[in-house]
Prior knowledge:
Blueprint (H helix, E strand, L loop, with lengths): L12 H7 L3 E3 L6 H5 L12 E4 L3 H14 L3 E4 L15 E4 L6 E4 L4 E5 L4 H8 L4 E2 L10 H6 L7 H4 L6 E7 L5 E5 L4 H7 L8 E8 L1 E2 L2 E10 L3 H13 L5 E9 L14 E9 L3 H7 L1 H4 L6 E8 H5 L11 E9 L4 H12 L7 E6 L3 H4 L14 E9 L5 H15 L15 H7 L3 H14 L12
Parallel strand pairs: 2-4, 3-4
Antiparallel strand pairs: 1-2, 5-6, 6-10, 7-11, 8-9, 8-10, 12-14, 12-15, 13-14, 13-17, 16-18, 17-18
Amino acid sequence: MAAGSRRTHTPAWQGLAATLRGTLLLPGDSDYETRRHVWNGATDRRPLAIARRIDAEDVAAAVKFAARERMPMTVRGGGHNVAGLAVRDDALMLDLGAMNRVEVDAQARLARVEGGALWRDVDAATQPPGFATTGGFVSTTGVGGYTLGGGVGWLMRRCGLAIDNLLETEVVLADGRGVIASERQHADLFWGLRGGAGGLGVVTRFTYRLHPVGDVYAGVAFHPIAAAADLLRAFAAFTRDAHEACTAMLVFTTAPPLPFLPAGVHGQRAIALAFCWSGEPASGAEAMRSLVGFGQPHGRHDGVMPYAAWQQMFDAGVPAGDHYYWTTSQFDALDDASIEALVPLAACPPDPLCEVHVHHLGGAVARVANDATAFSSRGVPFFINVIGHAGAAERFAAVRDWTQEARAALAPYARGGVQPNFAGAASDLQSRGHDVATRTKLAALRAHYDPDGLLAPVRAD
């Protein structure tokens, strides 16, 4: 029987509040409105209550309460998921935001990270001793949801996905028990946590492998939109044999008023090459020369910088509270037909804030067997994210329609499935986030670890 189906009385909130060292927020409390809102301003849902926890014992108490009440739960880490999975109507939100400590063991090259941390918290702790692990393209992304969905980022082709560097997790199960999940303990659970997109327990701590990463060679070059097709072809050719230290992407965007761009192109549609070379910086410029030096850009800014600085370079472009709707498609190739379908749509969005991101995978990502974890997209050479973005609510419908039209236009050239972290709607995650074999295995794991569906990761849209 589904969670919530037997609850016919008002939950004993005072009893839960008395067991928490953190705070319990109910509708009408001063901080309730603030914490129910997540990064995507298009998400407007009202949980029954928000339990703000400070440690794993708080998590266990809240989970046991929800289990007794047969009350569905959601978990908020960074709250950055575009589909708003951190919050549901008529559910208990477990808010991990205060659990953001990061402990670094430089000698063992490990980072132990609490479930509410952001990637900028991890970078701040790991960079001083000269280490990093794969984090999100935006530093305000939460560690938890990002990792559970797989975790692509600037270091992935050299160091693997976030889940490939995940060594151990501390998990509170749906019945309130705390367990360790790793290759040696609860290995089935550990498999599902790595790319399964949640719904198997509340992860209160992640332990990651660290890699030596200090300065990187990175930058961006803005090109005229008229050069988009040729740049896409050059990108496809370069990334086919790119060194694993190189991760790059193309971004259809509106040129911002950056000092290295001519004033005449500010506010005009452009296509930007963004790149990060995480190997020896001195060799990066030569290795990237053919792509970075392509064509006649409006302007280019590149050089050697701290990895953590590059990680925060794009934060300002995705402010919390704006309205977002994403779609994503995966491709075996960027050929002329897919390029011809993409460029007109990407060049003329309904809002200047909208973007299209063209990514490549390969390298360390592809060296792991596709069934070794619950991440189903390892063999995908390219994926394209259509980023619907509006600052005003009244423009949201138009950008949502545009993103859906773009996916439909690209569908004839795309393979099936999407990466969980880029599923713009819960229905996409449910139907397209994993291949059939993975979806079947995940369903069996959820039936075992959460038979009442208290932590079901998706909801009807």
